[in-house]
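Justification of computing resources. Each target in the renewal requires a structure prediction run like the one illustrated here; the chain below, 283 residues long, is used simply to show the kind of job we budget for.
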Amino acid sequence: MHYLNLPALINDLKRSPPAGPIALVLVEDDIEVQSTITHLQKAGFARVITFAPSDMALPEDIDRVDHPVLTDAALPEIVNAVMAAVPDIWLHYCYNAEYLFYPFCEHRRVGEMTTFAMEERRDSILTYVVDLYAGDLRNAPLAVARDDAFLDRSGYYALARTNETGAVLERQMDFYGGLRWRFEEHVPYHRRRIDRVSLFRAVPGLKMLPDRLFNVPEYNTFACPWHNNLTAAVCSFRTAKALKRNPGSRYQIESFHWQNSVRFNWQSQQLFDLGLMEPGQWF
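Resulting structure tokens:
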């Protein structure tokens, strides 16, 4: 299906809402678009909808919406419009060359996870963005290589999140690490966080704010008050790509490797072992 604009998609969703979770993929370039879509389809999303500039060539058989995605306002605009059209549906957003991993994803579908989350009275699942990067930048100058992908096994930390008056917010933290931490001199401060509430249930009145948090504070929490909840990870080449494309950092980075680089094996167990996601009470 090809929609010429966002309103056309919204009208269609209102007429025929899907029966399961929806994945929204913002396509910024032509790198690993199909692998991103395939990964989400295998996870069990009822629809995988891509958003891309109208002049970008993409495979004709994908679910596509022509929409400018290279602005800071694009994500909240898309998410808020879709949420209003499909209340009670779970949504996931990501960019191309990003891959959602969640507990036991090798043999459990995403709908099973969201059902469990609702049984725990949770309407959102915190996802950490785990940076991926190619092991050899000579063979992969844009740092994207699925068969030679590495990640950082350490260097992650969290700080208490505060409001505009400096008061600490309950069960909310700002998480940092990965390439945005190691190469922070090339990353604007407001883009350094790696926490992302990218899996959530649309409810009436819910809005994504410009900082990509939500207007309902509970959606921004990492756990409920009574125990830890499951978390997930978005394994992403996006930061590595940006650092190798940015003229200010391109020639200063000869390799992303350091002593804490490990090869990514594309399995959820590795992310468990590294503490980058947890199953909570889901077994």
